[in-house]
TrEMBL record:
Residues 2-32, 42-71, 72-101, 104-128 form the 4Fe-4S ferredoxin-type domain. Pfam families: Fer4, Fer4_7. InterPro entries: 4Fe4S_Fe-S-bd, 4Fe4S_Fe_S_CS, Fe-S_Ferredoxin. This is 4Fe-4S binding protein. One of its GO terms (molecular function) is metal ion binding. Gene3D superfamilies: 3.30.70.20. It comes from the Bacteria. It comes from Candidatus Limivivens merdigallinarum. The keyword RNA-binding does not apply.
């Protein structure tokens, strides 16, 4: 299974390079609300929130628009997605995105763009 992982030995410095890389790759603009990765402060530590490919978004989708591919990554079928936002509500990590001006939801596809942008090597794409 392919997924994005937070390296527990590395310290996030909240530079938002990962957030910027993600939103610019998929929406062509730096907008943290359009990024499929979020940086949050929790227990006095800064931590990236990433999609762990749990599938809760797929279970919540009434149209069956989110399915798991052969590598274990949940993908949004834009032809089936009607933008209802139920997947966004179901995501326990707050990393499903539904931009108001876009017809479909989007999510992390474990592409690694954010990991490449991170100067602290906090993120990595792994096969598990």
């Amino acid at each position: 299974m392919k997924k994005l992982k937070v390296n527990k030995d590395a310290q996030c410095m909240a530079c938002l390079a990962c957030v910027q890389a993600c939103s610019e790759a998929f929406y062509k603009v730096f907008d943290p609300d359009r990024s499929c990765i979020q940086v949050v402060e929790k227990n006095d530590k800064v931590k990236p929130m990433v999609c762990v490919q749990c599938g809760k978004c797929a279970k919540a989708c009434p149209n069956g628009a989110i399915t798991q591919n052969a590598k274990g990554v949940y993908m949004v079928n834009k032809k089936l997605c009607d933008g209802c936002g139920k997947c966004v509500e179901a995501c326990p990590f707050g990393v499903m995105v539904k931009a108001e001006d876009k017809p479909n939801a989007s999510k992390c596809i474990a592409c690694g763009i954010c990991a490449k942008a991170c100067p602290m090597d906090v993120l990595e794409v792994v096969e598990s």
